[in-house]
Amino acid sequence: MVFWFILFMGLTYLIVQRSVAHITKTPVWLLWLVLMTPAFIMIGWTLVYGAKQPPPPALIIWPLFICLLLYWLLFQSGRPVPKDTQTQPQATGSQLANHPHAESSPVRPIEPTEETNLRNCFPWSVYYIQNIEYRPQAVICRGQLRTAATQAYQQIKTNIEGQFGDRFLVIFQEGMDGKPFFVLVPNTQASKQNTNRKLENLTQAGTALLLLLLTLITTTLMGSQIAGVELTRIKSDFTLIFNGLPYALGLITILGIHELGHYFTARFHKIRSTLPYFIPVPFFLGTFGAFIQMRSPIPNRKALFDVSIAGPLAGFIATLPLLIWGLAHSEIVPVSDKTGLLNPNALNPRYSILLALISKLALGSELTAKSALDLHPVAIAGFLGLIVTALNLMPVGQLDGGHIVHAMFGQRTAVVIGQISRLLLLILSFVRQEFLLWAILLLFIPLIDEPALNDVTELDNKRDVLGLLAIALLLLIVLPLPEAIARVLQI
Fold it and tell me: pTM of the entire structure?
């Protein structure tokens, strides 16, 4: 317990130092102390009353709420306030650094006659321009927004393309003071020849197919081990390899549909992207997952939201039937000391609200309070599908969940949500050690993700509701089954 607590304190301090030390003047040790106060209170209770007597809920909820609020106030009080709309070099630089098309080549010098044409691109009734700043890799245009953000972006983008062709990408973002500004960066994609597009597509398809086949091999080998097959016997009896196919096909189906959800939604919004690339490994789960790469900028926050949420939802829909079938063919074993979240031979379904509900649906009255699950290989693939869905929905940085909260609340608020989420997961890992690896992984994920070209226009109500449902799905997967619901389900 002492070891885990010391590790928890060190990780928390490292997270605070890396995340907010450069954007607030509030001392890091003070922010860290405020965040650690709930943990200190729980440790004090344990030392006084022992581990067998749990603390009252009020002693957990109120300190956590008060400390998070105090952390937010201290963080905001230490943030530098821009003196005017012309002084935001650090914020603008960090935002441009996160855009993949803004860092390849310097901006061609703007001549005096071109600056006049540039100013004419901003009608006073749409966006009253006040100042133009020239940076090595961007031209920043600041002023006052006079109409709806969507209308302003479309009209000014059209005007700039009419004057300068495809020379610039037009980015629309909010500054540290909340005022939107335009950024013109070199359009590196325009300089590339389209004649090699077919060859590039063939190369992508060949690479994706090769990685898929290799991943099928590695996951099949891991599936054989999960099924209890000795790999040394495969040489003499090749048919034993098919024991690994249920796990391999189930996991590849879930991961593939997840990435295809991203891919087809990106195509719908006319965003260029690669085919899904799988990552084969001859150990662990047989794969480290799959990914796609965006080859063109995301036009707006609606497209960012749609592309980001499509993957987890598609993967979750694919996971449900596989998990239900796999659980129905799993064995029920007694709860023992070996029962745990990471033990597929004795999995306690009460470690997750959603897993408990699905297990009860699949097994019915056979599942009791004294039952654990010896998972079928397909159920293991489905369970990993839930974990992949939950991990991707974490509202942190460049994960799908980070993009979702960015699209819903804006980039600045998404950074704060990501920071709080990482710290809450660290606190949860202190209670449930299975989440410690997740907390460490989130530590190395940057909080600031890539902005859309039009990063000012907000979402509609339907997307906001869908985003909240995605967050609710994350909580259903991560949080343990409450005792009251367990009594109703009789598990």
Answer: 0.76
